[in-house]
Amino acid sequence: MIESSRICIQVQSAYVASQSAPEEERYVFAYTITIRNLGHDPVQLQGRYWLITNGNGRETEVQGEGVVGEHPLIAPGNEFQYTSGAVLETPMGTMQGHYVMTDDNGKTFHVDIPVFRLAIQTHIH
After folding, report:
1. What is the pTM of this model?
2. CATH no., domain 4-119
């Protein structure tokens, strides 16, 4: 069995001003996630769960099959990267959750996605 500690999750997020409309309380964020398999056996991503919290504390749960329409099989030593997005009513918030994965024996396990911030970057000159 694969231990979830053998899967490394890295996240980068960015504000997408061109798709946002602050006057309508619409703030669009893109996030890129890299999933690295540090183990010795292949794993397949089956599903995802997200808890999205806006700046006012309102929570939204999202779950579904795969990611971006795929169920990637990640070989040992390899990685899978994808970009997706979230829309908030506030200029900042957070996301966290987990992936549902299977090992090469078909056993299911969860990999936590640590909390990350969605926020408009402020520039200090």
Report:
1. 0.90
2. 2.60.40.1470
